[in-house]
Every structure is written in C-alpha cells, then in structure tokens.
C-alpha cells in the first residue's frame, strides 16, 4: 500500500472518534456523508504529490516543469502560479515562469513594481509560507503596497500567497500562488496545503537549478581554452591588438575566435558574449 494512502486512511479512521469526543455521532447523515468524500479527496490529492514530484524529476525542459506545476496547483484550487529565482547561484541565470495574466505581468514590469513589491521582498527574508494577510499583520504595508494589491485584484488576482525557497548558499526564490475566490476561503485553502506546497517548491527549485547547471556545463564545453582566454582578456578591457600581443597571435586570429564565440553563445557582439560568459560562470569579471 502506498505510504500516503496508509497514513491518510489511518487518520480517516480516527475522525469518527474525534467527532464522538465532541458529542457528535459519526453515524449521523451529514457526517457519514462527509467522511467518504473527505477520504477520497485527501487520498487522491496527497497521492498526486508523489506523481508530481516524479514528473518534475523526469521533465526534459523548464516548459514541461511549468506545465506539471500549473496542472497540479490548479487541481488544488489555485488558478495561477509563478516561480521566480530572484538570486541565482554563482554562474547561473535568473529564471522566471508564470501563468499570471499577461496584461498584469506587462503592467507590473512597465511600472517597475519589483522595486517595492513587499511580498517578494518578504519572501527573501523568511523561510515560512505566507499570504497577503500575513504581510498586513506583520509589516504594516504602505500606500504603494496596497496599490499593487488593488491593481492585481483588477486582473483576477484577488488573493496571493508565497512559498519562499532558500538555498543552496545564498540562492533565493519563491513560488507564488493566486486565485480570485473569497479571501477567507483562500486563507483556509492555503493553510491546508502550504506545507505540501513547501515540499513541491523544494523539488521544483532543485529541478530548475539542475537545468541551469546543465546549460552552464554545455556552454563551458562549447568554448575552447583559447576562446576563453580571448574572452577573458576582452572582459578586462583589452583591445584586439593588445590581446593579440599578449597571446602572441595575429589580430585577425583574435577576431576570428570572437566570431566563433559569438556563434557558439548565440550573441551578436563582444559585450553580449562577455555578459553571457560572466552570467554562466565561464569567466570572471
């Protein structure tokens, strides 16, 4: 028997006894009808966690990871979700995917709301899942913060909660969930699933870092030792003639190497090549 199923069935068997402790007979019609429904719902959703974790582990792309995640959180009652790798490990790029309404995303970016998004900032300082209600109680938001939340409501994001993710080292990310239901019902829903969502967020985060590390390794293998040398000297501000003199090669050879680097990294200029190489930890700056 699946461990989740065994555990939940054991919990379910205790429900009638718990009811009786409070003078409620488990054989009453409402209660008797509730227990099978509760049993089925809890078992099915808990079992799906294992399925999701397996799917995340076998996903072949970040798009596939996002689809698995979105399908699962939708089944719980959260219509929208976002994963944001705010502070990436050295050599890895920031990662972000969302199914928040695109109009809201564009509005958020255009107004540079990330500068004073209180929930995202709070996610960088706490390990525990939290909702907007928690933020109100703990941080005393100002007018700008309320303005973002009010505008989000207009886009169907009435309720938002976050699951912070910290590590490895100084890495910071979060999983955000949102819907447009009654706020009190949302608090109950999030309270029920927030600890399961912590587990899911950890597996999600680990998989995203795996993909980023794979891309970094692939890029590192693309560039030859000579190309890395030329890129390093270019990043330090050396001109083509100076780089050629240092490496005792022709200036035309330096330029040919840089053309190859542009092609391999998928960029169109020396500046872009340097930026990408630094971002993936191929060279220091």
Topology:
Layout: H1 3-21, H2 29-58, H3 62-76, E1 80-87, E2 96-98, H4 102-110, H5 118-123, E3 130-131, H6 132-139, H7 143-154, E4 159-166, E5 172-179, H8 183-222, H9 225-235, H10 240-247, H11 251-265, H12 270-279
Antiparallel strand pairs: 1-2, 1-5, 3-4, 4-5
Helix pairs in contact: 1-2, 2-3, 2-8, 3-8, 9-11, 9-12, 10-11, 11-12
Describe the structure.
The structure is a single chain. The protein starts with a helix and ends in a 6-residue tail after the last helix. α1 packs antiparallel against α2 (29-58) and α10 (240-247) packs across α11. The chain has a 5-stranded antiparallel β-sheet. The radius of gyration is 25 Å and the shape is elongated. It has 285 residues and is α+β, with helices and mostly antiparallel strands. It has helices at 3-21, 29-58, 62-76, 102-110, 118-123, 132-139, 143-154, 183-222, 225-235, 240-247, 251-265, 270-279, and strands spanning 80-87, 96-98, 130-131, 159-166, 172-179.
| SSE order, one letter for each helix or strand | HHHEEHHEHHEEHHHHH
The level-1 CATH class of the largest domain:
Alpha Beta
Strand order across the biggest sheet? 2-1-5-4-3
Which whole number gives the mean pLDDT? 82
At CATH's second level, what is the architecture of the largest domain? 2-Layer Sandwich
Strand portion: 5-15%
Structure class: alpha+beta
Helix content: 55-70%
How many individual β-strands?
5
Low-pLDDT residue spans: 1-5, 21-35
Fill in the CATH topology of the largest domain: Beta-Lactamase
Radius of gyration: 25 Å
- Biggest sheet character: 5 strands, antiparallel
Cα-to-Cα separation, first versus last residue? 55 Å
CATH superfamily of the largest domain: Transcription factor LuxR-like, autoinducer-binding domain
Q: How many structural domains can be distinguished in the coordinates?
A: 3
Sum up the overall morphology in one term. Answer: elongated
